[in-house]
Amino acid sequence: MENKTQIYKEVEKKVNELEIAQVRLEETLEELEATKQEGQQELVKLNEEIAQLEETKDISTDASVVREAIKNIKELKNEVELQQGFNKAMDNKAKKVLFTDAEEFYKLFNQVKMLYKPMLKAYIADASLNSITEDIEKIQAITRKVNSLFGQTKAFLIDAGVIEPAQARVRFEQGTSVHMNQRGLDIEELRDLQKVFTDMDRKLFQPVR
After folding, report:
1. pLDDT at 208 over 60
2. Average pLDDT, the chain
3. CA distances from 162 to 24, 92, 93, 112, 135 (A)
4. CA-wise closest residue to 144 among 106, 113, 91, 186
5. Which region holds residue 48: left if phi is over 0, alpha if psi is between -120 and 50, else beta?
6. Of the options 1.20.1050, 2.20.25, 3.30.70, 2.30.230, the CATH number for the domain spanning 4-204
7. Mind listing the pLDDT tens digit for each residue in 114-125?
8. Which residue has the higher pLDDT, 50 or 190?
9. Where do the structural domains in the chain lie, given as residue ranges?
C-alpha cells in the first residue's frame, strides 16, 4: 500500500488539474455565450430595420418609396434567414466544443475517483487517536472540492444545453463515461473510525468520576 502522504499528493495534484479543466470549460462557455449574444443582437437589429421599413411602407403615399421599402424588406428578411442559420450552426459548434472540453474534465474526475479509495484506505490503515481529526479535515477538504466541481460542471452543461437535466449517463467521443447522478465522494469510513477512537478514549483514558 502506498504511503498516505504520497498518495494524498497524487490526489491533490489531480484535483488541481480538475480545477484547471473546469476553469477552461467555464472560459470556453463564456466565449461561446458572447458569440451567441452577438448573433442574437444582429437578429434584433435586422428585425428592427424591417419594422421601420414596414411602417414606412404602410404610411407613405409615395409609390417609389413604398416600392423601395418592399425591396429592402425582402432583402432584410433574407438576411434574417441567413443570420438564423448562422446562429444555429454556431450553437451546434459551441455544444460540440463544450462537449470536448467536458470530456477532459470528466476524464480527470474519473482518475480522482480511482485514486480516492486507495487514499482513504491508506489513511484508515495509518489512523490513530491523535491523527484522526486532522486526517478527516484533510480528506474532507478534498471531497468538498471535488463534489463542488462536479456539481458546478453538471450545471454548466445543462444550462448550455449540452446535456439534458434527466440524463443519467453521458458517454463522450473518446470513450469517457460518467454517471451524472452518482453519489459524491464521502468520508464515512473515517467518521466511523473516529467514533471508535472517541469511544475507546472515553472508556480507557478519561478519568472515572
Report:
1. no
2. 89
3. 16, 9, 11, 23, 38
4. 186
5. alpha
6. 1.20.1050
7. 999 999 999 998
8. 50
9. 4-204
